[in-house]
Amino acid sequence: MLSSILDALPTREAKERRRLKRQIEAGRSALPSPMINGIQRGIENLQYKGHRILKDPFDFAIYSTLLWREKPATIVEIGSCEGGSALWMADLMRSYEIPCAIHSVDINKVTGVTAPGVMFHQGDAHNLGALFDDRFMAGITRPLLVIEDADHVKGTTLAVLRFFDKWLRPGEYIIVEDSIVTDMGIAGQFDGGPLGAIDEFLAERGADYEIDRFYCDMFGQNLTWNVNGYLKRVR
Question: Per residue in 142-163, pLDDT tens?
Answer without folding.
Answer: 999 999 999 999 999 999 999 9
